[in-house]
Design goal:
It is built from three helices and four strands. The chain has about 150 residues and is α+β, with helices and mostly antiparallel strands. The chain has a four-stranded antiparallel β-sheet.
Length: about 150
Amino acid sequence: MTHHWHAYEPWIGPHQFFGREHDPERRPGPTPGDLGTAAFIRASTPPLENGHYLLRRETTRERTWTDVQGALDWLTSTYAQQPPDATLSYVDPAARLEHSRTGLEGGSDAIWHYTVSLSANRVVVYAVICCPHRHHTRTPCPLPPN
């Protein structure tokens, strides 16, 4: 099966957003046409399940690749624009990138989630999602590559 990848823009918000009380905002409703699903599709918040990113309308041609290197370049560029808080210790960016390469080539997703400001309580989350998705096999591709 041939894979391609879609990237989803950074979301920046408070650590508390990842508490259980926000779970309903982070998943689609029970049916494709209900209000919960419509709200989820319009949202920019990180979903609970990676494959649900593919339901989002923010998929663009500029962030859809048939070559994993394009996705890795985007991750690197986004990381440079949204670096982690300098007071915290994180995995070396080169190691993170290599781990993402291995995962993406194997049909997994790359989700980068880290603190950008400890003092301001801000985290960033951005994603490259493999398509077709191995766990959301009924979710259609939002934007087939050229």
